[in-house]
Amino acid sequence: MAQSRTTATDHGTVDQLVLDHLRCTFDTSRLLTAIEIVDTCVGEAERATLHSNLRCLHDMASHLFDDVPMTIMSEQPVWQLAEEILDEIEESHIEVSGIVTLVQQLAALRPPDERRGS
């Protein structure tokens, strides 16, 4: 019997292999740095939502990867919030490639059976 590649978390069902990898490699403090970059480099209109979403993503990631107590309750899966942030950055044409690369790692938590184009 094949082992499931998904696992249920407090922040939605995620790809277990990606979760295991990110628990060992992802530095959640980089999301706080991303928030600082957004606050200094992004126009006021885009900043509020992006700042809020990145803060939420940081809280979720800290809970998942660093065993920090859960501070946010959301029905939205962590990977879905990451994808929304990526879409928001793309739509705004914000030049923050470092943030895109960072958030793409969290978007990869999307379970295999929910991959785009499946």
Keyword list:
single chain; 118 residues; mainly alpha; two-stranded antiparallel sheet; 2 strands; 61% helix; globular
Structure in words:
The protein has 118 residues and is mainly alpha-helical. It has helices spanning 16-25, 29-41, 44-66, 78-92, 97-107, and strands spanning 6-9, 12-15. A hairpin with a 2-residue loop joins strand 1 and strand 2 (12-15).
Task: Describe the secondary-structure layout.
Blueprint: E1 6-9, E2 12-15, H1 16-25, H2 29-41, H3 44-66, H4 78-92, H5 97-107
Antiparallel strand pairs: 1-2
Helix pairs in contact: 2-3, 3-4, 4-5
Summarize the structure.
The protein is mostly helical. It has 5 helices and 2 strands, in the order ββααααα.
